[in-house]
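User:
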Amino acid sequence: MDSMLINSYHYHMQEYVTAGELSQLCNLHVQTLHYYDRIGLLKPAMRRSYDGTRLYRFDQVYKLTTIRYQKRLGKTLSEIRAYMESCDVKGTLDDLKQQIQIVHNRMDELKVVETMLHEKISFIEQKLSGKKTVDPQKVDTHWFPPRPYIAAQGDEFQFGNDYFYVYPTVVFHEDGKKSFGVYVPDDFDKEHALAQLSYIPEGLYFCGYHLGSYETIYSSINSLRSLALEAGHVLSNQNVCFNIIDQFIEPDTNKYLTEIQILTNN
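Assistant: Predicted structure:
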């Protein structure tokens, strides 16, 4: 026989259970029961006279199970208290229907997150494909169409928005200044209609890679610009840097990998 069923049967033979026994039965920390007692959410039926031990009626397990379930649905303790103080058949059915809608909304949100994570994996794998080493002298030219990104509006956006974890960070270096954004897919606005998108200009880009910390990236930028100028390219002042391996993926800054792209005006 299942041990939980045996325990339930054993406790059901008792009129009262202690906080420790109730917490064991419901797989809950005993301090949680003590807290519920202090705030009046689930008070013991009585205390043992000679030592003050909290004693709960066995049927209070149903109330505790309701609290646990409501918490799992994301309700606050205040909301749970209000629900339990006013619930009836109609109220319970209405609440359950509302929870179904909330679950559906969460499923939709998680589907979006799943798509974003697949896109992050695809971006990293595509950039790392066949790239065993990074040769600063090896450069390529590529034509790119306009590419969307979300411009950061100060550091609070950079660190407070999940986009900066899920999507690649793009950093713009120009005339000693830098600004940030997140590089998003071309169809990003279909799922995020309110997003304010900016666009990296289309054109021919001189492309290379930097391996190492952000603090040392300027040497790679300068080397790439020198190679481009030697090859006869006329360059924009802006350097566009895509973080491929960064602090979200690798703790060792020496292993950071950044793609540098410089728009040519040829």
